[in-house]
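Summary for the funding panel

The consortium committed to producing paired sequence-structure records for every protein in the target list. Below we show the first two records in order, beginning with the earlier of the two.
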Amino acid sequence: MKLKTLSIVMLLSTVFAFGQTQFETDGVIVPRTIQVNGAKKIQLNGFGTRTKAWVDVYVQALYLTVLSQDPEFIMESETDMAIRIEVLSKLVTSRKLTNAMEKGFEKSCGDNLSAMMPKIIQFKALLADEIVKGDVYILSYNPNESAVFVYKNDKLKGKIEGKDFKKALFGIWLSDKPADEDLKMDLLGKS
C-alpha cells in the first residue's frame, strides 16, 4: 500500500513541479483536469490506449475527485468522476462501440445484467450517432443527481440515472473482469 501511495505522490509531484497541464499519447492531448457537472474540476487519475487486433481504437482517461488506485473504491465512490474517450480509428463505428460496451456490461454486471438491461439500452441509444476519428466522449457521474451524463464533443446527449448504472459502466474498465487488463492498470495509474 505504501508503494502505491508513493507512486501516486511521485506522479503528482512531477506533474506539479513541471506545471504540466496536459499529456500526449498516440497523438491525443489528455488534459490533467476537466470540468464536469456544473464546472466542478476533477483530476486525471490515469490514461491509456485501448488496442484491439493491433489497431489503436481509442485513448481513455479516468478523472476523479479523489485520486485512487483501488478500483472497488472508485466504483463505489459517491463523488464526481468521469471517463474521457477519444476515438483514434476510423474503424470505430457506433455499432462496434455499442457491441463492445454491451460485452463489457455482461462482464461488469454478472448476474444483474437482465435488471440493468433497460439502462444499457438507453445508454446504447445515446451512442447511436455516427462516429468519426477524433470524436470525444465524456461519461460523467454526478453524485448529486445519481446519474451518468453522456457528452459527445461537448454536447450533452442525455443521462442515465442510478448509482448501479455508474458502477456497472465504470466496471467495464475497472471490474475484476475488465475489457482490457492493461488499460485498467493504466487508468489506475499502476503502469
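The next record, for a separate protein in the list, is shown here:
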Amino acid sequence: MEKLLVLYPAQPNAEAFKTYYVQNHVPLVRKLPGLRTLRYSIDVQSLAGDASFFCVFEGEFADREALRAAMGSPEGHAVAEDVPKFAQVAPIVLRYSVEHEV
C-alpha cells in the first residue's frame, strides 16, 4: 500500500481555508483514480499543545504506481492546481509505502 500524506501549516485565514477545503478541494480529491480511502482532519494539535500543522490529509493507493498514475492524471493535475486557491502557506507533501501493518 502507498500513502499520500499532506501536512498543511497554520493558515492566515483558518475559516476560509476550512470552508474551501471541505466544499471544493476534498470533492476534487475524491475523483482521483485509484484512491482507496481518504482521511483528513482540521485543527490538528500536538500532544504538547503546540501544533505545527493546521490540517492533515491521508490518502491510500494500492501501490506506488497507482499513486503516480493518479497524480499524473487530469484529476491529479486539477487537485494540485487547486491547492494555491485555499492554502496561502504551502503544504508539505509526503508519500510512503506501508511496509508492515499490524
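Regarding this second record: The mean pLDDT is 94. Residues 14-30 form the longest helix (17 residues).
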